[in-house]
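Predict structure. Chain length: 127.
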Amino acid sequence: MSTETETGDQQGGQTGDPVLVGVDFDLIPWEKWQKPGAEGRVKIAYTQGLRVRLMELPAGFDEHEWCLRGHQGYVLQGEFTIHFENRSVPCRPGMGFVIPDDEKHRSQGAQGEPTVVYVVDKVVPTA
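Prediction complete.
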């Protein structure tokens, strides 16, 4: 299958291109991903108003800034903790997570091995 068919329209098939259903991460190149306290790599696809990511973060990463965007995901490798203002939730391989929009959070990786997660969130329009 061609890369064009696999990636479709980056905003979800709005131009008549086929809507992305299967994401072949093997065809998507790694890009650098960086936030204060966390630097890793990511593969990104867009479809149907969603951003779909495969993320790899180094052992011990520690995001410094709070995020307000909701996310859903699945932990493939490594352990990390999602910190909220009033609680923390540990995540390990095999666990899914659902963070609602507008709930302030940040993540911190455990020492020992990189964290690999599959993450889905809504595309946020840019001004």
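Summary: Residues 1-14 have pLDDT under 50 and may be disordered.
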